[in-house]
Write a structure and sequence with these properties.
Blueprint (H helix, E strand, L loop, with lengths): L9 H8 L4 E2 L1 E7 L2 E7 L2 E6 L2 E8 L3 H9 L1 E6 L5 H9 L13 E3 L5 E3 L4 E13 L2 E13 L6 E3 L2 E3 L5
Antiparallel strand pairs: 1-11, 2-3, 2-6, 4-5, 5-10, 6-9, 7-8, 9-10, 11-12
Length: about 170
């Protein structure tokens, strides 16, 4: 193995990743019996056996520690009609409890809220959590799921995007 490799700069890495299309999800949990959540784009399937998601949360947010303590979280992948929900959970830290309109959200088996009309929604048990650089990486074993029709909300180059028909 060659050890002469130079690390890439953080700025170059961020610029390159801005060209990658990511799904948009809201990750939710309960903290002191209060629902909390945030918008996440660093999220994907890890394994199918057992069904497991990978969720990456910026480590300087209190969310990572609160999810660890909760031991469970829910993931609601947003439809292209739910960009306002993504904005709400990404730009109003501490005020997200007001965003949990009971007409839109229900409680999953873990107790965490799930968006009823999300295109895919999952309840997860924290299997593993570890710090990697600036983020905490969670492996969440899926314990329950649901789906709804719709097209995915995507994120690329700093903007929410929609798929266009072929």
């Amino acid at each position: 193995m060659t050890t002469d490799l130079q690390p890439v700069s953080v700025d170059d890495y961020k610029q390159a990743m801005r060209h990658v299309v990511s799904p948009v999800a809201v990750v939710t949990w309960l903290h002191a019996d209060t629902p909390e959540g945030l918008t996440v784009t660093a999220i994907c399937s890890a394994t199918t056996e057992p069904p497991t998601l990978v969720v990456c949360i910026r480590g300087d947010k209190p969310a990572a520690e609160r999810i660890r303590r909760a031991g469970h979280f829910a993931v609601s992948f947003l439809s292209d009609e739910q960009a306002e929900i993504a904005r709400r959970f990404s730009s109003h830290p501490g005020d997200e409890a007001e965003a949990f309109d009971p007409a839109l959200w229900s409680t999953g088996p873990s107790g965490a809220p799930r968006l009823d009309k999300a295109i895919s929604r999952f309840d997860c048990a924290v299997e593993q959590a570890f710090d990697q650089g600036s983020h905490t990486v969670f492996l969440g074993r899926v314990t329950d799921l649901g789906t709804a029709p719709g097209a995915s909300l995507l994120y690329r180059d700093g903007f929410f995007r929609r798929l266009s028909p072929e």
